[in-house]
């Protein structure tokens, strides 16, 4: 049963076969080329109808028509009756041609109220019901009519793109609605005007209307026979003429009105832009310009977005005015004239501001900030798409969903109309006219008639879908998803080539589709944005649009099988069709030639696509595709989709400098403004493209300067140093984090690192490391110099005081500073880690953490700490295999930093151990204090203290290793040492095993061996003796062991295995490791410096950073060649001429016209072949095409010659026979013809 709140349910949902019909509308690429409306309520209108007929008999119910008008109506009715009788007579005589040519009864100059007598109405309705019954359904009746039309006029089939079943059903449904309104003249007129508004984009003519009228009447007469009386025929003809006349009338007035609507709307918003571009008197900034691609719709959208941002000459005052009028003014009640009068001095000039002002004056300030705001958000799209009913219907349904979020009693469309017209009048006071008034009234009245029938649907449909989803079991849901794909693959077998994921993934997608149908009602604004974004992603997938129709049809059909009520099927279909329409439209609008080329992964198609781009918009074509409020970047999509060749082509095209006589075109600014994180994206997802990006940031002159010794080079590194907010960019950090020494050795990165090091970091680094130098000096004084002076020169009170002061400085200042650094690092890491954990577990997204979530976060943090500790322990163990060096390149970026952290931590711990056993503190009670000699200080304690002091001294020296960063050569040498340490470790492990093996063996044999050849009496001494022999520290000789042959043999075996085998194997491994690491040695050294710079920049004062950036003068334009003033944003250097050879101009220069709206001349890819390998490939492809064409022509020519040769041979034999019969004269003529054709052979 129908829901009681649906006053007039849509009849298009009554039949399950409607599923295919509605879905098939998604196939059409043109807007309503089939002549039928896509509206679910008005979907069955005739595509070619445009007839306006008058009533047969005036009714007494028309009480608002005066006598003169009534006389005119009666006169018109008489003429219509007479014409209808003529049509009836023509049909009775089977003269359909005459009926089709009779178009005089179609009134196309106005739309009046149609009044038919009750008798005629009853007969027409009864005849129509009988007609539907005899054809057993609406589809059969409609197909009979369309079959007759197509049989008599086959050319009419080209006007329809959807299936005949869909057309037939919707056509009959529309006639049903007209029949229901026959006894309500005013409703009938409104319905007819709405149909005319919906079909005004169609080429409706009186001839096409007459064809439909004749077909309908013929089928009525054939189906009903005698029941189809002349009154029925006349009444039906009058109705069809009336509807068709309204369509023709609407089409006649629509072009001028549409043009007036769009022009006035654009003018109103252009006025906002002009005001925003005026000089600011109050310091308020203007709104940034939208970067949407050019086009009429996009221009209007950018104007609307600019207006919505509140930009005008007095944006600050406007905001104050709006707040005051909405109830925040102390001078009067909300929206009062008193409040308005106080703010007249701040009267806005934009359309949005004037709308708010007029709403406040009319007492609708609260509505203007609620449901009227939602209408204004979509009204732009309604205006610019008024000529496209498909888009108009889609936007109106989205608007209905958004309005359903408010109380229906609060929504008053006449109020919005009043505010809209008042705002337009105020914004366009000079150009406003009665024509504007009529056009905007006509638009809004028709929009309201489209909105009102659907206002109750969202609430009802949402409740029905929500309840159905909750009651549906998981087994039923699984069965539905399974049946959907089964039916879909039956309807569209080609879909299996695109749905290649696993079965679980397909079920996941199907479940998302079902959830989207319900979420569309709950949060329409967010869902429309998500659906648009999904559509843009499908552009990159390259999925054919014709697959959406069977997919939607499959879903609707399967859902109807499992429906619990008919209303559930209606709700699901209404939501899913709307989702499909948004998806298909987004895909169509987003399917630019560039996106299609990316989907094909074809560089050739991409090059052809951008060839058509205006030179001023070429970069935008490659970086920005926008549909509504959603956009996608072709470059990022190509990277994410793995189309590396296409992405490489895009980067090369963007970073190619082109020039005409007036200006240079270089896409680096657009690239980094659209994608500030482009370096991170490439480093993470496509490292192979990083060299392409970096190469494109360099320009080198092909001319030499300074006696041929130098070459001018410009490095466009502004965006590699600065982010959009003026802070230090993360580009260097991302490159260093990649751990690739080849990328770090790129000239661009080298220049960046050296510039930052010399300009900012070097001084800051020296200052930060002076503490280490001071700590080392103080520690050296306290542990060696002062104790040595005391020992040699004698003790004195001043020396003991100095010793105590130095040691306290090392403990309190040195160890305290290191402890604070470690605590700070731990705090920063814990804070960031815990924040990340909290954001991960905040599943509800409300930003609040409850007790359960907090407990879970604590446990996760505990596990994270354990895992980090295990990682640190594993790192201290080192790597055992050479292949792991390649796998751990990214870890090398932070290796120096981590090494320094570990060294500083070790220094802190050792100083702590020394503090615990400090002799001077233990002797605090001694009368000779400060001193280190007292009963509390034992020899063992001094021994332990000395061990800790030795280790701490070594650590203090190791902390100075960071100064190696001043020289890349020294840093590279230290890197080599660090990399070969694992090989030495392996050697020591093997040597230890041999020492244990032979030490235990020899100790058993030599319990009483002489000590001449070494002490082998026990295992420790034997191992020590063997180790001495291995390292060449053994002072004896092998002859000392001649008395014991067994011992001598064991020692010889040990030396052979340890010295000859293991030591030479160590040398080989060191050599191999060195060869491997040598090629990237300088790269890793630069990697170390880059990471150090990144760490130092985190603590760089902003004033110093701004001073440094000002010194680089990126805003100044730099010369390309002498006298050729080029582009800003670069650093200019003069490199040695032989470092990077360049024999051709890297700038592509063009003559001709210099307008930015013109594309670059053809043949762009054939220029500068030597500078771009891709151009060489294009030329080779061109040559291949030319050779193919030559080959085809030669084959055709050879075939033609062989055919001529065969014809010549047959002609020869024929003429020979003629010669035998006719004489020698004919033979001679044949010979002459043969001689004339001879050269062709």
UniProtKB/TrEMBL annotation:
It comes from the Eukaryota. GO terms for biological process: calcium ion import across plasma membrane. It holds the Pfam family Ion_trans. Residues 829-864 form the EF-hand domain. GO terms for cellular component: plasma membrane. It is found in: Membrane. Residues 1-81, 275-338, 1198-1241 are annotated as: Disordered. Coiled coil: none annotated. Keywords: Membrane, Repeat, Transmembrane, Transmembrane helix. It is a multi-pass membrane protein. Residues 7-43 have a biased composition (Acidic residues). SUPFAM superfamilies: Globin-like. Residues 115-241 form the Globin domain. Residues 1221-1241 have a biased composition (Low complexity). InterPro entries: EF_Hand_1_Ca_BS (IPR018247), EF_hand_dom (IPR002048), Globin (IPR000971), Globin-like_sf (IPR009050), Globin/Proto (IPR012292), Ion_trans_dom (IPR005821), Mb-like_M (IPR044399), TRPV (IPR024862). The chain crosses the membrane at residues 802-821, 899-917, 945-966, 987-1004, 1046-1067. Residues 51-62, 281-296, 308-325, 1211-1220 have a biased composition (Polar residues). One of its GO terms (molecular function) is monoatomic ion channel activity. PANTHER family: INACTIVE (PTHR10582:SF2), TRANSIENT RECEPTOR POTENTIAL ION CHANNEL PROTEIN (PTHR10582). This is Calmodulin. It comes from Polarella glacialis.
């Amino acid at each position: 049963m129908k829901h009681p709140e649906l006053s007039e349910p849509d009849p298009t949902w009554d039949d399950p076969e409607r599923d295919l019909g509605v879905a098939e509308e998604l196939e059409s690429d043109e807007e309503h080329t089939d002549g039928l409306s896509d509206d679910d309520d008005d979907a069955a209108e005739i595509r070619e109808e445009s007839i306006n007929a008058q009533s047969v008999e005036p009714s007494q119910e028309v009480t608002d028509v005066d006598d003169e008008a009534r006389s005119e109506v009666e006169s018109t009715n008489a003429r219509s009756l007479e014409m209808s009788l003529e049509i009836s007579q023509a049909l009775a005589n089977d003269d359909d041609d005459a009926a089709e040519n009779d178009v005089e009864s179609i009134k196309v100059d106005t739309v009046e109220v149609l009044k038919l007598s009750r008798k005629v109405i009853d007969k027409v309705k009864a005849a129509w019901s009988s007609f539907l019954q005899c054809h057993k359904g609406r589809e059969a009746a409609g197909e009979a009519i369309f079959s007759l039309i197509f049989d008599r006029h086959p050319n009419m089939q080209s006007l329809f793109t959807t299936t005949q079943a869909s057309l037939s059903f919707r056509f009959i449904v529309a006639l049903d609605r007209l029949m229901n309104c026959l006894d309500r003249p005013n409703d009938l007129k409104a319905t007819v005007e709405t149909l005319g508004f919906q079909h005004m984009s169609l080429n409706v003519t009186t001839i096409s209307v007459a064809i439909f009228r004749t077909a309908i009447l013929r089928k009525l007469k054939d189906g009903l026979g005698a029941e189809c009386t002349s009154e029925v025929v006349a009444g039906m003809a009058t109705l069809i003429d009336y509807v068709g006349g309204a369509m023709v009338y609407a089409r006649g007035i629509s072009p001028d009105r549409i043009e007036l609507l769009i022009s006035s709307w654009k003018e109103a918003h252009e006025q906002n832009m002009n005001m925003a571009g005026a000089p600011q008197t109050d310091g308020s900034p203007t709104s940034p310009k939208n970067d949407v691609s050019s086009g009429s719709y996009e221009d209007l959208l950018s104007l609307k977005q600019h207006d919505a941002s509140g930009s005008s000459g007095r944006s600050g005052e406007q905001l104050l005015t709006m707040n005051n009028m909405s109830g925040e003014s102390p001078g009067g009640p909300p929206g009062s004239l008193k409040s308005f009068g106080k703010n007249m001095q701040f009267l806005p000039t934009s359309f949005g501001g004037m709308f708010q002002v007029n709403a406040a004056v009319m007492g609708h300030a609260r509505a203007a900030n609620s449901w009227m705001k939602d209408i204004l958000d979509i009204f732009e799209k309604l205006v610019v798409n008024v000529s496209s009913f498909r888009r108009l219907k889609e936007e109106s349904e989205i608007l209905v969903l958004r309005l359903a979020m408010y109380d229906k009693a609060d929504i008053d469309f006449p109020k919005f109309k009043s505010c809209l017209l008042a705002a337009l009048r105020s914004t366009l006071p000079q150009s406003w006219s009665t024509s504007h008034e009529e056009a905007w009234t006509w638009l809004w009245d028709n929009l309201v008639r489209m909105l009102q029938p659907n206002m109750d649907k969202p609430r009802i449909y949402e409740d029905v879908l929500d309840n159905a989803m909750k009651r549906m079991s998981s087994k039923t849901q699984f069965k539905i998803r399974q049946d959907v794909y089964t039916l879909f693959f039956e309807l569209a077998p080609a879909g299996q080539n695109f749905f290649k994921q696993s079965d679980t993934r397909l079920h996941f997608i199907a479940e998302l589709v079902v959830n989207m149908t319900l979420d569309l009602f709950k949060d329409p604004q967010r869902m429309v944005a998500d659906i648009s974004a999904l559509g843009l992603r499908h552009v990159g997938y390259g999925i054919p649009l014709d697959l959406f129709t069977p997919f939607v049809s499959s879903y609707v059909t399967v859902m109807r099988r499992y429906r619990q009520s008919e209303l559930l099927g209606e709700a699901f279909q209404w939501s899913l069709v709307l989702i499909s329409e948004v998806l298909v439209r987004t895909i169509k609008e987003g399917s630019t030639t560039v996106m299609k080329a990316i989907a094909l992964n074809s560089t050739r198609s991409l090059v052809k696509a951008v060839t058509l781009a205006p030179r001023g918009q070429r970069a935008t074509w490659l970086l920005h595709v926008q549909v509504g409020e959603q956009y996608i970047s072709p470059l990022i999509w190509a990277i994410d989709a793995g189309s590396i060749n296409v992405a490489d082509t895009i980067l090369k095209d963007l970073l190619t400098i082109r020039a005409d006589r007036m200006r240079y075109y270089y896409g680096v600014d657009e690239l980094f403004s659209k994608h500030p994180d482009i370096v991170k994206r490439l480093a993470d997802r496509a490292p192979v493209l990083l060299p392409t990006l970096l190469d494109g940031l360099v320009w080198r002159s092909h001319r030499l300067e300074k006696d041929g010794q130098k070459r001018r080079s410009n490095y466009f590194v502004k965006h590699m140093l600065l982010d959009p907010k003026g802070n230090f960019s993360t580009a260097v950090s991302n490159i260093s984090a990649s751990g690739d020494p080849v990328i770090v050795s790129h000239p661009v990165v080298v220049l960046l690192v050296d510039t930052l090091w010399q300009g900012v970091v070097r001084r800051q680094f020296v200052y930060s490391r002076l503490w280490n130098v001071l700590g080392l000096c103080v520690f050296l004084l306290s542990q060696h110099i002062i104790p040595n002076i005391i020992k040699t020169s004698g003790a004195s009170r001043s020396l003991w005081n100095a010793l105590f002061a130095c040691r306290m400085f090392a403990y309190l200042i040195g160890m305290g500073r290191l402890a604070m650094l470690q605590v700070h690092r731990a705090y920063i890491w814990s804070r960031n880690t815990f924040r990340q954990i909290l954001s991960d577990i905040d599943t509800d997204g409300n930003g609040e953490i409850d007790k359960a979530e907090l407990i879970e976060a604590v446990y996760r943090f505990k596990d994270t700490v354990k895992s980090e500790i295990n990682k640190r322990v594993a790192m201290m163990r080192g790597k055992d295999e050479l292949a792991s060096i390649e796998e751990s390149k990214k870890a090398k970026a932070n290796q120096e930093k981590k090494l320094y952290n570990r060294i500083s931590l070790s220094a802190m711990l050792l100083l702590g151990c020394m503090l615990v056993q400090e002799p001077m503190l233990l002797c605090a009670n001694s009368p000779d204090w400060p001193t280190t000699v007292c009963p509390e200080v034992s020899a063992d304690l001094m021994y332990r203290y000395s061990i800790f002091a030795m280790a701490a001294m070594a650590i203090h020296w190791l902390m100075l290793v960071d100064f190696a960063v001043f020289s890349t050569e020294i840093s590279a040498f230290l890197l080599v040492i660090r990399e070969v340490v694992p090989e030495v470790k392996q050697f020591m492990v093997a040597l230890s095993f041999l020492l244990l093996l032979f030490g235990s063996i020899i100790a058993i044999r030599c319990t009483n061996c002489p000590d001449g050849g070494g002490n082998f009496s026990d295992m420790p001494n034997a191992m020590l003796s063997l180790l001495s022999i291995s390292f060449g520290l053994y002072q004896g000789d092998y002859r000392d062991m001649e008395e014991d042959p067994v011992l001598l043999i064991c020692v010889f075996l040990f030396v052979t295995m340890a010295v000859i085998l293991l030591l030479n194997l160590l040398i080989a491994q060191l050599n191999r490791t060195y060869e491997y690491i040598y090629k990237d040695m300088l790269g890793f050294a630069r990697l170390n410096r880059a990471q150090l710079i990144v760490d130092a920049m985190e603590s760089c004062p902003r004033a110093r950073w701004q001073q440094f950036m000002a010194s680089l003068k990126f805003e100044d334009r730099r010369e390309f060649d002498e006298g050729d003033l080029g582009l800003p944003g670069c650093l200019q250097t003069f490199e040695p001429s032989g470092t990077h050879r360049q024999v051709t101009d890297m700038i592509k220069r063009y003559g001709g016209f210099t307008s930015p709206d013109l594309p670059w001349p053809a043949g762009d890819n054939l220029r500068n072949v030597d500078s771009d390998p891709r151009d060489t490939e294009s030329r080779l492809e061109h040559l291949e095409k030319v050779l193919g064409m030559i080959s085809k022509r030669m084959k055709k020519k050879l075939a033609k010659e062989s055919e001529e040769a065969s014809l010549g041979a047959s002609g020869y034999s024929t003429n020979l026979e003629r010669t035998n019969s006719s004489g020698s004269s004919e033979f001679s003529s044949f010979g002459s013809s043969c001689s004339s054709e001879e050269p062709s052979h």
